[in-house]
Amino acid sequence: MAPKKMDYSSVPTSVELDNNFNGRKYTVNSSNNKVVIPRSICALLTLAAILLALLSALIVFLLVPKCGQEQSDSQSLFSDKPSAVAEEIDPRLPVELEPLYYKLNLVPDFQRQTIDGTVEIRLRANEDKYEVIFNVKDLRIDSNYTELRLANSNQTVELEDQEQIPSERFRITTKEPLKKGETYVLVLKYDTDFNSHLLGIYNSRYFDGRNKKTKSLVSTQFSPIDARRGFPCFDEPSFKSIFSISIARPTSLSTVSNMPKKGDPQPFEDRKDWVWDHYEDTPPIPTYLVAFVISDFKSATASRPSTELWATQSFLSQTQYAADLLPVMINYLQSYLNVSFPVKKLDLVAIPEFGFGAMENWGLITFRESMLLFDRNNTSIEDQKNIAHVLAHELAHQWFGNLVTPKWWDDLWLKEGFSTYLSYLAVAKAHPKWTYTQEIFPNELTKALENDAYLSSEAVSKQIKNNKQIRQIFGAGSYSKGACLVRMLNNFLTEPTFLKGVKYYLDRYKFKNADHKDLLKCFDDAAAENVNPFVNFTNVGDIMENWISKPGFPVLTITTNMETKAITIRQKRFSLEGSSDDTLWWVPISIATDLDPDFRDSSPKAWLQGESITLPVNFANWYIVNVNQTGYYMVNYDEQIWRALIKDIMNVPPLTRAQLIGDSMELAKANLLDYDIPLRLIANMAVNDKMIMFVPTLVAFNKLEFLSDMLINTPAFGLFENYHKTIFKDTYHTVDFSNTLDDYLSLRIMKTVLEWSCRSVESRCAILAHSLYRKWMQGSIVIQPNVRHIVYCTAIRQGGKAEWDFAYHEYRRTNSPTEKNVLLDALGCTKQEWLLSRMLKAILEGQTSYLNIVLDDETYSMRIQDADRIFESIANNKAGSQLAFNFLRRNWDDLREHLGEGFDILNKLILSIPKHMNTEFQLAELQKFKEELGDRIGHAGPALDRAIEIVRTKVVWMQKNYKSLEQWLYAHQDNFGYGSK
User: Fold this and answer.
1) Domain made up of 409-549: CATH architecture
2) Greater confidence, 444 or 33?
3) Bridge-partner residues for 186, per DSSP?
């Protein structure tokens, strides 16, 4: 539905001016004098008019397609859905041949930057077949050495042809059919270049601080569909096979792979000072979990048997934190799941250049350095939290994804959702004082709901038709929403039933593949054995079907009968754009009230199966539906209940405060609730929360950030700044740089509060931050890790070239990966546009794997893995937002070529653009950008459609909400501090 436009009724349109249907309204000069025209002239004018009409008709006929397109483009400014584009379909590999066993021999050539390989694949024919089709990308297969033979007799099968075919596949045809039930061996010889985009087999460079030399290593990244870049293979997750891997290397280097080595290194006959490392056979695993690293890294042994951690010599000591966490997390997970840790040995490697945060390869988990290394002198508490979380996530994958693998990428959430959910439990076990399980609310639930609120959102299980879509599904839906659905399952099944179902799943499908129906059948079986089945139980598949297979989530609208104490609940899909569909979910209804405030019990008291339900509720003033937001939905109460909750917000637990603030702000954003409700909720909490509880404070600031972004260019921004400064006055005064508390929650609160406290140039926080930065420049102090980002960003934002140059020199000087990240983020905070332009330029300059930047006539390099970090820091800066968009638009083709499309880098760049866009002109420019790209859009089409949708909702928001919000802020400017009244 097109949004309501601004009132321009007093301004004529071009059509109205042309036709002038209302002459008195639009005629500039008028006269009552009559004009008489001779008949002859009238005849000539009539003839001329006829000829002109004929000519016009001809022109219109010829130009109809173009004009029609222009009209369509104009109407699409506020269209609800992205333009329809025919989806490509990449054929799946045929299942008539099944790989059973790979024998892979690899020989790297560091001079030529290539790797030579031979692979023997044992295949079983499930049907008579004249061809073998497998995946290949960027490999050079030497057809002279290709051989196909029967496994039991070594009889050669005569080949007809060998050819590369579309969709990254290779076909070998035979003169006689391969016979059903027979086993064959396919032998292939090939070579390939080290990949320049951190995909497949790639060469990573790093600076050895001890030896002052630039060194290199070889690493792999085969997930999700890049094993085909490393060796010819059946590169689909359902083709799980056993792998025997042998790697040649110089004696000066070492290798690690998925399994333990078989004995000592063996001589390499063709090369002096080279040896072979032969590895034990893997269990059946998918190709994307195959991995190896060739390096001169050193290792440290963890306290857990057969576990080592690898890094450069300089960073080896920084693996100790992860080494300490490993046995705690592994022991907890195998005890919780009641399934033994499935891998025989475990190596963890910190890779200097790495596209993802980490990768769960079987028995060999690879990490970006900042996601594994912990340096007490430079690592903040948030970085420490990230390290623990990522480690727990990758360990959970050893069960979910590795032991049991999704049949196809449409069920990616089966591994990512479970691993995300379990990571909170494992971190909470390792750090019980962190109360980390509560952080699933701001980290995953809030993110998932915000992402799922758009009409373009997709189901967690969706049909995957091509390779582009495989790369695109690694996002909030699979990870965050997946985790929230697992959390909801755990809650309504009860944990004993949930864990029984999980054990069935892991036992039945170990070393095999499963889909979400297999999982739900395991929960069905577990629930059927439960002597206390949950309310209205039919089967888990019925309950979860729409949660899994449909996009979006419901908003429950509740009306209250205060006399009968009954509530009527209605459900509808939530949408920021107002329009919706008729999807209905099975919704678990849990309730707490002021008369029964048991927020520990979040079990369902009823189920909403259709459009509405009426329930009796025992309450006096208020009730809460969806206790602890264990259900994946939002709730909108009637005004009387909202007002009561505003008054009593400090009488509900902190997690419930966060829930009420989060729901009410999103409801107001969607025009389902007046902003008076959430702004009063936040004000009352902020004024009265003397303990400064972390989760509700974090959620409040995150939600207020949207209003800040929307208002920053409007007259109401000053009023909004006064609003948050007033209600959080005591909080800003309590939390400053002098705080000496060093416990986890205090440090997280410090960062959250100071980021907002330092926003204003004249604030005490900003002045002190700049002073601390100056002292750091002078060498008189060292900024504490937990406030470095705030101090650096604030000082660089308020300073000039001197502050920026100093931070960049520090970026060049430090070897700490986490400190480099903090400095890169801070460099993007400057308001000096020429400095931001110089950073953007660096993204496209330099060598293949590095970004170069010129500073004082000297060229320095930044790692290409940080390209998205640099761009996002600039795009998130109001001073750099338009610069970033212009840069992206102007350099699209070069960015695609330079950055590649393997890690959604371009998608991240695109999705950082809308932060400061909320005008019709900006929307039109974004749509025009999409039109300009045409077929050159690559994998980024859905991301660009989402960016357009985000900006469109912001334009509508400005039209519908700005005036009323400005009036509210103006009317309450004298009593913000008493917002609950």
Assistant:
1) Orthogonal Bundle (1.10)
2) 444
3) 121, 148
